[in-house]
Amino acid sequence: MLMRVSDRPGLQIPLFCVFLVIYGLTVAGNVGIITLTSVDAQLQTPMYFFLRHLAIINLGNSTVIAPKMLVNFLATKKTISYYGCAAQLGGFLVFIMAEIFMLAAMAYDRYVAICNPLLYTVVVSPQTCLLLASLTYLYSLTTALTVSSCVFSVSYCSSNVINHFYCDNVPLLALSCSETYNPETAVFTFSGTNLFFSIIIVLTSYFNIALAILRMRSSEGRWKAFSTCASHMMAVTVFYGTLLFMYLQPRTNHSLDTNKMASVFYTLVIPMLNPLIYSLRNKDVKDALKRFLDNPCHSLKIV
User: Fold this and answer.
1) Sorted alphabetically, which PROSITE patterns does this protein's record hold (predicted)?
2) Which of 4, 100, 247, 282 has its CA 20 to 30 A from that of 255?
3) Burial per residue of 254-265, b for 16 or more beta-carbon CB atoms within 10 angstroms, e otherwise
4) What is the rounded distance in angstroms from the CA atom of residue 89 to the CA atom of residue 298?
5) pTM for the whole structure
6) What is the DSSP letter of 3?
């Protein structure tokens, strides 16, 4: 049994409408980014390669959670099968881990572009981009399988009511009637380690970017360099801030109701916001959208 976002009966239909709109915007925005970065000749660069994969990840993350959540707003009996729950947890972990390291790869891309522009095409080659993306997905899948196996290795025999609107490791482990020290340690270790290393990559990249920008003599050059990474900085701040709040706290300090609100933010709101952040602040994406809308057939031919 899955709980709703809110238990107030009068809010179920309004919340269904709100989250249906959010999910619709998420699908439209991320499919739009995927399409534009795939078909427009001027967006065939490493920066937009990583942006395309971030959009794929955002779309996947939202799709793992939103459809079941929307059904539960209207359903009388809000159930999910045991194996369905395991699949949902696994899918959620794959996309969350992938987003963590895709954002780190995007930070590294911006670091090379601003700090070593003459070596950019050599260092961030198409082969390097494919390798980073492949390693991101492979590591995410491995981590998801490991953590999911740990969570579902314990016995569940006391209650079948999950205090969440999707299957997450913390509310699942709270239902266990056996020792949960090992799976909790595994969850905390993987979460902490992955966040630590990805944040180190992001902070190191942006520290060097900031130094490079400060050394520039031209104010126009400084502004141009800053504008190329402003959208990514905004997305990173929102995503990592929410994730740190969620997972790097002991189980005794967890408030499941507070975690529900944080989960809504990074599983549904952030995937909707990212296409807006990257398109509204990005002249290349806006120009590509205009070209595509003006002549979609020509856009498809030029790639």
Assistant:
1) G_PROTEIN_RECEP_F1_1 (PS00237), G_PROTEIN_RECEP_F1_2 (PS50262)
2) 100
3) eeeeebbebbbb
4) 42
5) 0.89
6) P
